[in-house]
Design goal:
- Two copies of one chain form a homodimer.
- With 151 residues, chain A is mainly α.
- Chain A has five helices and two strands, in the order ααββααα.
- Chain A has a two-stranded antiparallel sheet with strand order 1-2.
- The structure holds a DNA duplex (30 and 30 nucleotides).
DNA sequence: GTAATTCCTAAACCTAACTTTAGCTCAAGA
DNA sequence: TCTTGAGCTAAAGTTAGGTTTAGGAATTAC
């Protein structure tokens, strides 16, 4: 057993499948907060395995790290989260997922319209919808189509 | 009217809503190929408006630029694409969209299972599925969970 | 007790998809 | 004609989400 109780970062990495560097990065982003042993090394609780697992799932669902941090803020910080706590924030994830699915379904309908007429007429297409944040990355403002009537 | 026929890059930018810099970038990525006027400036065809619109839509659907280039390769290069040509490649897009939607629906089912038991037990969750490439970016191997049984 | 691991920090590097900047040329209007 | 607005290229900067590297310090294994 280790000098001070708790998991080392390497052990946590093995348990979650994450790289050690990724775990440190998540800490820098405020997603996880280990304590330090007398020698200055990070020590984690067993509950942190679940916490990081949650992070990975949320990422699959397309949430950004800041968004995930928000969701995790719904957990109690004065005690180890219970299954009920996890259930609660997982339901928030579910809502997020539903929204993404709805968006894609709407895009699909719109695309069908475009395919139907063969004209690829943009104003009918989904791009007008400013709520569609399916666009993951890329920096700067890419304001979505003013018009492209093909004159 | 311009010295040599065709749209200037600025005009194309106005018609599509894209930034001039983005259009040049797409050219560097092989998504569009203007010709040059005697002064060395880019000139575009009207059909290029539609081409760029297609690029924007495909991006909304989550395709990367290399993937979009592949799809666009399905257009004829010896003549201006007809509505039928666009329809054909749009249907490829539709298949791609369907796949993304299926993936998310599957994720949702899995999440429901996790919420149901409240345990957030990872092996039951979606992350085991190596086909889920919903994960857009980030470099290097982030091998998805070996195990996290919370022992 | 010492060698081999593991961990630490800070800073640099990576990819995708662009934007910004610098310095210069082309084109269009009065 | 001359000025101003577009355009050109090449290179550097940006964001997200990490990884890699460098140079030490703490732990663990023998």
């Amino acid at each position: 057993m280790p000098a001070s109780e708790g998991l080392s970062i390497g052990a946590l990495a093995r348990r979650t499948g994450l790289a050690v560097s990724a775990i440190r990065y998540y800490e820098a982003q405020g997603l996880i907060s280990p304590w330090r042993n007398p020698g200055g090394q990070r020590r984690y609780q067993r509950a942190d395995i679940r916490r990081l697992s949650f992070v990975m799932i949320a990422q699959q669902f397309g949430l950004t790290l800041p968004e995930i941090r928000e969701v995790l803020a719904g957990l109690p910080d004065n005690r180890t989260p219970t299954p009920a706590d996890w259930k609660k924030i997982s339901q928030g994830l579910r809502a997020h997922l539903d929204q993404r699915i709805d968006t894609l379904l709407r895009l699909r309908d719109n695309l069908d319209g475009c395919i139907g007429c063969g004209c690829l007429s943009l104003p009918k297409c989904a791009l007008y919808n400013p709520d569609d944040r399916a666009k993951a990355h890329g920096s700067g403002p890419r304001y979505l189509m003013g018009d492209a009537p093909e004159g």
